[in-house]
Amino acid sequence: MSETAMELIDLKKTIGKKEIIKGLSFKINKGEVFGFIGPNGAGKTTTIRMMVGLMQVTDGDVQILGNSIKNDFKEAIKEVGAIVENPEMYPFMTGEQNLKHYARMIPGISKERVQEVIALVGLEKVVKEKVGRYSLGMRQRLGIAQALLHKPSVLILDEPTNGLDPAGIKEIRQYIRRLASAEGVAVIISSHLLSEIELMCDRIGIIKNGELVATQSVNDSTDAEQQRLSQIKLEVTPADKAMELLTSHHDINAEISNESLSFQLEKEKIPMIIETLVKHDVSIYQVGASNATLEDKFFDLIGENIIE
Ligand SMILES: Nc1ncnc2c1ncn2[C@@H]1O[C@H](COP(=O)(O)OP(=O)(O)OP(=O)(O)O)[C@@H](O)[C@H]1O
Q: What is stated as this protein's family in its record (predicted)?
């Protein structure tokens, strides 16, 4: 059974006269990794700043375990752990010393919890080394460990893969999945790079111009259905006649560009299509089929390339 960790209810933000966030509503469950994706300037950081109480909500609400960030700020915010800007760490202290130093500032954190979070992000081997010698990936993991010290229900990471090399991204990916299941926290990760975070998310929400365009489970049944479909490309003459035949005989809505038709279809049905076209004297020059990826679908949804 899923339990809601965080809920955005018609969340809005206006700065000056500009409406930057235009009414976002969605829920994130405990133990879920949720990717918050959108092109630069879409409003991810603004939304996250409201989620973590760094910016006032103009209208609507953010609820964390049912507590409103507007009305029960203290209760709500104690369930949030976040890395929004680069975490402050002392480079001349070891990772462990940094965590202990931070833990002393929060009431009720046990020594055991410090060791627990170190293990959660897999830093046992380097935790006695000075942070100044850490890679960016290790520093990010130490930041995550720090954000988890007080056992929050929601962990929010704003662009955690920024500046990381592929190995660093892989490191973060592995630990995020693990801690969502081990700690049962809801993890929210923002990024403008779908390809980098797709593999670690259960679900993805796409934001554009301050509005939620879609939410999509990464591996749900509709997705499996989608994966059976191939993107078919046909080079034919005359293309308009071919298009009519596809619609009338096979109920396919194709897109036409020059002499080329594209549409989605199960691969097994290609011979049937070709038979119809040949029977009606359409010349076929080329047939191509490729699987539509999650990326393709997102390009369709947001109408532009969000991958750099
Ligand atoms: N303080 C502000 N005053 C006016 N406009 C702002 C302010 N902060 C953000 N904006 C505008 O709000 C929009 C959303 O910005 P935001 O930083 O939330 O986007 P983002 O999705 O996080 O983008 P990025 O991926 O580039 O960080 C942008 O058009 C930005 O110019």
A: Belongs to the ABC transporter superfamily.
Query: Is a pLDDT exceeding 80 seen at residue 228?
Result: no
What is the number of the ligand 1 atom nearest to the C-alpha of 46?
A: 18
Q: How far is the centre of ligand 1, averaged over its atoms, from the C-alpha of 294 (Å)? A: 26
The tokens describing 206, both together, are 């796409």
Q: Which residues, judged by CB distance below 6 Å to any ligand atom, belong to the binding site of ligand 1? A: 15, 18, 20, 38, 40-46, 192
Kindly state the percentage of the chain with pLDDT values over 70.
89
In this model, does residue 182 exceed pLDDT 90? no
Residue nearest to atom 6 of ligand 1 (CA): 15
Q: Which of 14, 20, 306 to mutate to test the pocket of ligand 1 (most atoms within 8 A of CB)?
A: 20
CATH number for the domain running over 223-302: 3.30.70.930
User: Could you tell me if 187 and 32 are in contact, meaning their C-beta atoms sit under 8 angstroms apart?
Assistant: yes
Q: Distance from the CA of 43 to the center of ligand 1, in angstroms?
A: 5
3-state helix vs strand vs coil in the chain, percent to 5: 40, 30, 30
Tokens linked to 208: 């554009």
Question: What fold, for 4-219?
Answer: Rossmann fold (3.40.50)
Q: What is the DSSP string of 81-123?
A: EEE-SPPP--TTSBHHHHHHHHHHTSTT--HHHHHHHHHHTT-
Where does CATH 3.40.50.300 sit in the chain? 4-219
Report ipTM (2 d.p.).
Answer: 0.94
* C-alpha torsion 129→135→136→141, nearest 10: -50
